[in-house]
Write a structure and sequence with these properties.
GO terms for molecular function: aldehyde-lyase activity; methylthioribulose 1-phosphate dehydratase activity; zinc ion binding. By secondary structure, the chain is of the alpha+beta class. It has helices spanning 4-23, 79-88, 101-109, 147-161, 181-205; strands at 33-37, 42-46, 60-64, 94-98, 114-118, 135-141, 166-169, 173-178.
Length: 207
């Protein structure tokens, strides 16, 4: 069902990015999960409960779009939030879910269900964005332990409002995606900085 060499490369890449994300404070302890598409039926995914700064290839497993494990390992409880993206868009090649302090705090205090950003040059780091004059919209969803229900809500929103580049879960973190891990990481890095700008603006307005 999947190529073993592709899986081995994906597993090592996820370990490498895990160390980077942990070093930046975006994936503390065992939080977060990352994945890479292997084909039209399955993806490589970090196992549940693994420290993201200490990942090894043995901590990566393969799951299908229904979230079933195809290799040894325990799928993350949030697997369906990855597979929902792969199933809806065949151009998505990687998904990163992280728990940075900026994303968690801002998502908790932002009053609207959409976070709209415009006027920032860094917006052009997202694939297809060519000007700072456009407005980027990032939806915020309430945290939910029923992941199947949350995945269905995300899909419903994307079907009616557009897929966008990322979304936030309140008090939880962010999901970002891209054609491959490099693009996905670029999107995440840009988003983290943009969220930081917004949080600083909120602080300044309180002075």
């Amino acid at each position: 069902m999947f190529n073993q060499q592709d899986f081995a490369r994906a597993a090592q890449a996820l370990c490498d990015y895990g160390r980077i994300l942990y070093s930046r404070g975006w994936s503390p302890a065992t939080s977060s999960n990352y994945s890479v598409r292997l084909n039209e039926q399955c993806c490589a995914l970090t196992s549940s409960g693994k420290h993201k700064g200490e990942l090894t290839p043995a901590d990566i497993l393969v799951v299908d779009w229904q979230g079933h494990a195809l290799t040894s390992g325990k799928p993350s409880a949030e697997t369906l939030l990855h597979t929902q993206l792969y199933e809806r868009d065949p151009t998505i090649g990687a998904v990163l879910h992280t728990h940075s302090p900026v994303a968690v705090v801002l998502s908790q205090i932002w009053p609207q269900d959409q976070l709209q950003l415009s006027g920032w040059e860094l917006q052009k780091a997202f694939a297809g964005e060519t000007t700072h004059e456009d407005t980027l919209s990032f939806p915020l969803f309430a945290n939910d332990q029923d992941i199947a229900r949350l995945a269905a809500l995300v899909e419903q929103h994307m079907s009616t409002q557009g897929q966008g580049h990322a979304y936030l879960i309140r008090g939880h973190g962010v999901y970002t995606w891209g054609k491959d891990l490099a693009e996905c990481f670029r999107h995440l890095e840009a988003l983290e900085n943009l969220l930081g700008y917004q949080l600083e603006l909120l602080k300044l307005r309180q002075l």
